[in-house]
Design goal:
CATH superfamily of the largest domain: P-loop containing nucleotide triphosphate hydrolases
Distance between the termini: 22 Å
Strand order of the largest sheet: 2-5-1-6-7
Shape: globular
Structural class: alpha/beta
Number of strands: 7
Order of helices and strands: EHEHHHEHHEHEHEHHHEHHHH
Length: 344
């Protein structure tokens, strides 16, 4: 079984990873593995090969993009094994290939050079040269064109590819594997199918604390989130959460609040254990201690963020606020912001 622990950025999914690391029978891969939904990743390849099948254009652009992206981000973690894994995977999907060029190549090369040199100058030259010589030498901009339109057994072949990828990362696919950020927290359902027997644990957090971490405590540490302006942050947060109610009741997706893991610890870990079929640990609270991480909640109450900004978040995002008033606040340490649950 593959378990993806997913967050919305700074929502605390690391706390769940730390809890699961206490189980000796689970394999934990802490490096982020985002190939399923990374731009030009498996999801984009699936779309262009199975949904947006526009003549030869879709696959002859999507495939080289997929190869470039996967080999770039996974070359080091797989110690080079990704090259053959990707080539074998694509080979199983391709129906026809040849040495050629097409309009789609414009987005794969420097546009000015391709248009003025490759298209206008070299194409005219190629017409005067034997095609055998051109293709044998692969004179620019000629390249390998690979066509794939609605390939048979795409999901099965993809699951075989991800199995082999996990093996190349030193993991045993016959056992339960916990992956970090394997699925996007705002839309895990679509991407679960790319891994065999997969589940997702999605971790969310009170938007007030997220905003404080970004704009005050760790200011500038994550420019992927709009922390400079509270109105833009609210629009960002709402957009990411628009569809969460659609997957909350899915059998293979568990939605948690970071705060629940702290203030409702026993109840929440029972949910996690039941979801994954785990026995209760005889001794836990080693890597993740809720009494200590409590200091990382209600951060907005003692921050430098303006009262107006916090009130704006409360007014615009009331359904995502955690009801802290129901619980007693007694953190067991005096130092705020431990390393465990702040990001992801």
């Amino acid at each position: 079984m593959i378990v993806g622990v997913c967050g919305f950025s700074w929502s605390g999914s690391g706390a769940v990873m730390d809890y699961l690391m206490q189980y000796d029978n689970l394999q934990i891969y802490k490096r982020e593995l985002t190939i399923a939904y990374f731009p030009d990743g498996i999801g984009d390849l699936d779309f262009h090969l199975n949904e947006n099948c526009a003549k030869f254009l879709s696959s002859t652009v999507a495939i080289p993009r997929f190869k470039k992206m996967t080999k770039r981000i996974l070359k080091r973690p797989t110690k080079g094994a990704i090259d053959k894994l990707v080539d074998d995977y694509i080979e199983s999907l391709v129906q026809s290939k040849w040495i050629g060029a097409g309009q789609g190549q414009l987005v794969l090369h420097n546009q000015w050079f391709y248009w003025h040199v490759g298209n206008r100058l070299l194409h005219r030259t190629y017409r005067k040269i034997s095609p055998d010589i051109c293709t044998r030498l692969r004179l620019y901009p000629l390249t390998e064109m690979e066509l794939s339109i609605c390939p048979d057994s795409f999901i099965e072949k993809t699951q075989l590819f991800t199995d082999n990828l996990l093996v190349s990362l030193g993991l045993d696919v016959s056992k339960t594997i916990v992956l970090n950020q394997a699925f996007p927290a705002n839309n895990p359902k679509r991407f679960l199918r790319y891994f065999r027997e997969s589940k997702a644990i999605v971790v969310d957090r009170d938007p007030r604390d997220v905003f404080v971490f970004l704009s005050d405590v760790f200011r500038g540490n994550s420019y992927s989130v709009p922390f400079q302006n509270v109105e833009e942050f609210v629009k960002y947060y709402r957009a990411l959460h628009n569809d969460i109610n659609k997957y909350k009741k899915e059998d293979n997706i568990l939605y948690l609040r970071f705060e629940d893991l702290i203030y409702e610890y026993e109840k929440t870990i029972n949910k996690i254990n039941s979801f994954l079929g785990l026995d209760k640990l005889e001794k836990d609270r080693i890597l993740f201690v809720p009494e200590q991480s409590m200091i990382n909640t209600r951060v907005f109450e003692n921050s430098n963020i303006s009262k107006n900004d916090l009130e704006y978040i409360e007014q615009e995002l009331p359904e995502y606020l955690f009801d802290f008033e129901k619980y007693e606040y007694k953190p067991s340490i005096s130092t705020r912001f431990d390393d465990n649950p702040l990001t992801k």
